[in-house]
Give the backbone structure.
Amino acid sequence: MIVAEQKSLEELKALIEEAQKVLVVGCGTCVTVCFAGGDREAAIVSSSLRMATKLNGQPRDITSVTVQRQCEWEYLDQITEQIKEVDLVLSLGCGIGVQAIAEHFPQTWVVPGLNTSFLGLPTEQGIWAERCAACGDCILHLTGGICPIARCSKSLLNGPCGGSENGHCEIDPDVDCAWQLIYDRLTAMGKTQVLLNIQSPKNWKTSRDGGPRKIVREDLRLVAEEEE
Amino acid sequence: MPGDCHYLEGNVNAKRRVEYIKELLTQIGLEPERVRMFQMSSAQAAQFAEAAQQMTEQIAAIGPSPLRKKS
């Protein structure tokens, strides 16, 4: 999932300062399950901002609504009327949600209520950890299902660096060395021979280095075919 | 009695959540003392009465919520 964290209430207050009518928009997917921007958080942020602005002597009209996914036009269509009523939208979606609202409602001023952090998972309740860097060229079959791009601090492809100490990374003793994890797992699975394949330098073109990415699936598109 | 809860570690979790609420109230601009957690069993009537008394005095000292004022 996409993992995000809420901005502080102080930051949120500053973001909505210029507006009189604000709509806090939660998102019912990734940021709901990481407790950053779901329906419950949207209600709490909305209520907190109402109270905070009232106490400041500058009360704002703040309401909230949550859509199933801010990143799809169909779900955003459902709040068109509510968005028309306000002068600012505080999105509690990830960065994609904020941009989707800006793109879908060109006349609407939208600001981000979250900091989008990473692609990861909850390792236990209340703790989320990064697992994928969305590099666009997955090599998890070569690394025992543990990603060295996302989990090695240097994104090394052929084993650990000299900073690996007792299974931990030199950047922080609380951070596991991804290559130690990879080696341990491949050993346990009896597949260490995989490590004999030296990986050539990665082509980062599929990652951010190739500029903004886009996928086109002609088989799924709904455009009318050009007449012959 | 932290950890000695009908819901096992429930009161330990509740304590962290009360701390979160206090922090949120502070950020909103309200007194964090408006919420407080007391720990006791359901059989401790005297302690409950004492806690209720303490909380009543504490809240009375802070005064009514400023949010009640008409803006």
Q: What stands out?
A: Residues 14 and 37 of chain B are 8 Å apart (CA to CA).
